[in-house]
Amino acid sequence: MLVVAENINVISKTIGAAFKERNAEPVKKLAAQLTANGADMLDLNIGPARKDGAGLMPWLVNTVKEVSPLALSLDTTNAEAMEEGLKVATAPALMNSISLQPERLEKLLPLVNKYNANMIGLLWGVDGMPRDANERCMLAVDLVYKAGEAGITPDRIWIDPISTPVTVDIVQVQACLEFMSMLGEIAPECRSIVGLSNVSNGVPAHLRGYFNRTSLIAFMKYGLYSAISDPLDRELVKIARGEMPEVVRLIHRMMDGDEPDPAKLSPKELEYYKTYRVLSGQVLYSDSWLDI
User: Fold this and answer.
1) CA 192, CA 86: separation in Å to the nearest integer?
2) Is the bond preceding 280 in cis, omega lying within 30 degrees of 0?
3) What number is the average pLDDT over the span 62-75?
4) What are phi and psi of 89, to 5 degrees?
5) How far apart, in whole angstroms, are the C-alpha atoms of residue 149 and residue 143?
6) What is the pTM of this model?
7) DSSP secondary structure, 180-246, as one string
8) How far is CA 113 from CA 118, 119, 125, 152, 249, in A?
9) Contact 41, 8 (CB under 8 A)
10) What average pLDDT does the segment 260-264 reach?
11) Spatial distance between the Cα atoms of 86 and 36, rounded to a whole number of angstroms
12) Pairing state of beta strands 118-122 and 94-98?
């Protein structure tokens, strides 16, 4: 499974300041660290970048290319900035992302073929966030159809079902997983990707990794192709590389309806057991879920 590093992001105080000042050193240092820690791809997120996106994105792409050979995901809602980044990125870059809003389809779909790119198909419709797994399925079919009309083959589309915070709506968390269990049937040639850290938004910083890692395991049961996540979390990378099979088996058994005896679990397994019970809606979220 591909680990797409989320860390080069405008919301970071250090990286955001480096973007603004065109200070390459913090960006290079982080890109090199992420590469060394096992990232397979680097997501370069400049946000809307309304004022200087067309200059910022190619600067960022060229800066990162100086220290990392990894493929790049260009992450912005600014179509002009996206194109300027694609011009200098090594193909095939990944465009993050294209949703079903007509203006984004019109501006961004032509760039996929023009620059031999892959695309993330974000399941966000004209009415906003899908309400359940079935709406995600309908949006996925619609998105693949519209991309096909533009000459984009399904194998170049990475479907993002939109992971949501466990602290906000556990029903949406479950709907996202339910959709993933159906994706292979409705769009078998498409790949899948998920913004993993979304699930832990609102969770205290020192506890976020538990939800990120456990949800990664849950998505892996349905053949997740890639996750936008934090390679600095070494345990998460181990899971992605298949190095923690015991906790993976535990969570997948629980997803199949097995209820293990907590008294027989190791301390590490117990962490994942308790975290999955929150993700699955069996236990209400609280900041003390690991202590209960």
Assistant:
1) 21
2) no
3) 98
4) -75, 150
5) 10
6) 0.96
7) HHHHHHHSTT-EEEEEGGGGGTTS-GGGHHHHHHHHHHHHHTTT--EEEE-TT-HHHHHHHTT--HH
8) 9, 10, 22, 7, 40
9) no
10) 97
11) 24
12) parallel
Hey, which bits of the chain come out as E strands?
2-5, 41-47, 71-76, 94-98, 118-122, 157-160, 191-195, 226-229
pLDDT at position 91: 86
Q: Is the pLDDT confidence value at 197 over 90?
A: yes
> Does residue 292 register a pLDDT over 90?
no
Domain ranges of the chain: 2-232
Q: Which residues of 255-288 are buried (b: 16+ CB within 10 A; e: fewer)?
A: beeeeeeeeebeeebbbbbbbbbbbbeeeebeee
pLDDT of 204 higher than 90: yes
Query: Position of tokens 């990392």?
Result: 68
Residue 176 tokens, joined: 């996202």
Rounded CA separation 18/93 (Å): 23
Q: Cβ neighbours of residue 67 under 8 Å, at least 6 residues apart?
A: 28, 31, 32, 35
Nearest to residue 230, comparing CAs of 23, 34, 1? 34
What is the tens place of the pLDDT at every residue in 16-58? 999 999 999 999 999 999 999 999 999 999 999 999 999 999 9
Residue 229 sits at φ, ψ, to 5 deg, of: -155, -170
Mean pLDDT of the chain: 97
Residue 261, φ and ψ in degrees, nearest 5: -80, 115
Assess contact for 159 and 192: CB atoms under 8 A. Answer: yes
For residue 261, the SS3 value is coil
pLDDT at 235: 98
At 15 the three-state DSSP class reads: helix
Encoded tokens for 63? 């800066």
Could you tell me the fold of the domain covering 2-232?
A: TIM Barrel (3.20.20)
Pair of tokens at residue 249: 């088996």
